[in-house]
Structure formats: C-alpha cells, structure tokens
Design a protein that fits this description.
With 254 residues, the protein is α/β, with parallel strands linked by helices. Helix content is 42%, strand content 15%. Strands 3-2-1-4-5-6-7 form a seven-stranded parallel sheet, sandwiched between helices. Helix 4 (103-128) links the parallel strand 4 (80-83) and strand 5. Helix 4 (103-128) runs parallel beside helix 6. It is globular. Bound molecules: nicotinamide-adenine-dinucleotide (NAD).
Length: 254
C-alpha cells in the first residue's frame, strides 16, 4: 500500500520503535493516531506529528476496542496498525532456591504481549474490512512485534519467549483468515534495540548481549525497525511471515 494519504494506528507509538514508525509513516504522507499509556509522551508525539493521542492500556481489552474505534474515527479510517506495546519478566521456571515461576506472572506476560496483540488485531481487522480496497485489492496491513527470544529465549525468559512465540505462531493463520478481506499480517522479531525498554541496560551488559551478532554488532536503532515496517506496508507480497531484524544475532542461553 502507499503511505501517502493512508491512516495508521500506532499502539506504543509514544516511544521507541513504534514512534519511529509513526514518524516515518508521516514523513511518507500518512496520518497517525498514537495509542499509548496515559503517562507516556503520546500527547507530545501526536502533536508533533499532527496526529491525535488516545491514552490506553492494552490489557484493558474492552477499553482497547473503544479506543481503537475512537482513533479510527479521528483518522477517518485505518489502513496500518502497528503494535509494539509489550514487556517481559526475568524469572526462571524453577529458581536456584527451588521456587516455581509464579503462574500469575506467566499469565500476565502472555496477556500483555499475546492476548493484547490479538485483541488489537481483531478490532483493527474489523475496521480495515470496511475500507474500499485499493486497485490491488488491499484494505490494510497489521504488524505485531515479537522478539528473537521467540526462537531462542534466554534463561529467565520463559514467559516472554512463550508469549512472543505465540505472536509469531498466529501470524500466518491470521493472514490466512484475513486474506479474503485483502488485509495482510506480519510480525517483526527484533534483537536488542535502543529504545525506552532497554534504556537502563549498562554498557557492559549491552556488549555481552550483542556479542553474537554477525554484523552490525550493536543495538538496533528504532529507525531500522521503522524502515522494515514501511517496507512491509509498501510490498503486497509481504504477508504471513515473521521477519527477524537482528544483524544475524542468535541469543546464547545467557
Ligand atoms: N527494545 C528491544 O530490545 C526489544 C527487542 C525485542 C523485542 N522488543 C519488543 O518491542 C516492544 C517494546 O518496544 P520498544 O522497544 O520500542 O520500547 P519502548 O518502551 O520505547 O516503547 C514501548 C511503548 O509501549 C507502551 N506500552 C507498554 N505497555 C503498554 C500498555 N500496557 N498499554 C499501552 N501502551 C503500553 C510504552 O508506554 C511505550 O511507549 C515490546 O513488545 C518488546 O517485547 C523490544
């Protein structure tokens, strides 16, 4: 699809990779609504990009449905839905002291990353299905965010790896479900990126975390995620896949 004149809902758009995607989409002529937590910088980002801000919490599933509809109303439709809201915990299945991973923590990580993504997708799909298709029959594009931990989670990432693997796993099936509407679904799996989420990581740990990359051996930049997201939006043949954006990195066990 062409970004020019298209409408994008950016969940997590106040910061990091989704903010960079919103910025690039607007530079290419699109219009955005920023959806993020009330305490985020969403209002300032939306203001700067000439868009609207819609405070939300992605785990408030019913509230999210309402907020996405409000955002689409403000935009006058939705063709692009990018979602990066998510996080993990550092807890082993069984700690060295023999304590089991609490189930509520596991559940919480799955709800925040996987269930919330699916909820956002189903609401966005309902709205995109109302679009007039373009000349190629396309009505919209959705991008979710996994992690390379979906494929090689490190020690202590069991909940996060499971949730992100769920996002990766639903990608092709959802693309097949939505193919008849001309809606594409893709997932990006980043390695370590320099965003709000990783701001507190000390330099020596950062060096250890990127040491197994092929090239470049550094954190990714949010703009590099945005470049991939826009390439997906542009290219009708990108559908049903998970794309690693990782400099050839494979996480070691720790
Ligand atoms: N940064 C990395 O190294 C990295 C690597 C792999 C995957 N990821 C994934 O990327 C996403 C994080 O994006 P980022 O790295 O740009 O971080 P970021 O913190 O800069 O941006 C994430 C945005 O999501 C928002 N958000 C978080 N929880 C939310 C909620 N419950 N409701 C609404 N908004 C919420 C935050 O307020 C923030 O603005 C996560 O899904 C994470 O698992 C990040």
């Amino acid at each position: 699809m062409q970004a020019s004149g298209a409408k994008g809902i950016m969940v997590g758009g106040a910061s990091g990779m989704c903010r960079a995607t919103a910025e690039l989409f607007v530079r290419r002529g699109g219009k955005v609504a920023i959806l993020d937590r009330p305490q985020s910088e969403g209002a300032a980002v939306a203001d700067r990009l000439g868009g609207t801000f819609h405070p939300c919490d992605v785990v408030d599933y019913a509230g999210m449905e309402r907020v996405i509809e409000e955002a689409a109303d403000a935009l006058g439709g939705v063709h692009f839905c990018v979602n990066t809201a998510g996080a993990g915990v550092a807890t082993r299945t069984l700690s060295k002291e023999g304590e089991m991973h609490p189930l509520d923590t596991f559940h919480g990580v799955v709800q925040l990353n996987l269930v919330a993504s699916f909820n956002i997708n189903r609401v966005a799909a309902k709205l995109m299905a109302r679009n007039e298709p373009n000349e190629a029959g396309e009505r919209g594009v959705m991008i979710n965010t996994a992690s390379i931990a979906a494929f090689e989670g490190q020690i202590g990432q069991v909940a996060y790896a499971a949730a992100k693997a769920g996002i990766a796993g639903m990608t092709l099936t959802m693309a097949r479900d939505l193919g008849l509407f001309g809606i594409r679904v893709m997932t990006i799996a980043p390695s370590l990126f320099d965003t709000g989420l990783t701001r507190g990581i000390p330099a020596d740990l950062e060096q250890r975390l990127v040491k197994d990359a092929a090239f470049p051996r550094r954190m990714g930049q949010p703009e590099e995620f945005a470049t991939m997201a826009l390439a997906i939006f542009d290219c009708p043949m990108m559908n049903g896949s998970v794309i690693r954006v990782d400099g050839g990195q494979r996480f070691a066990p720790r």
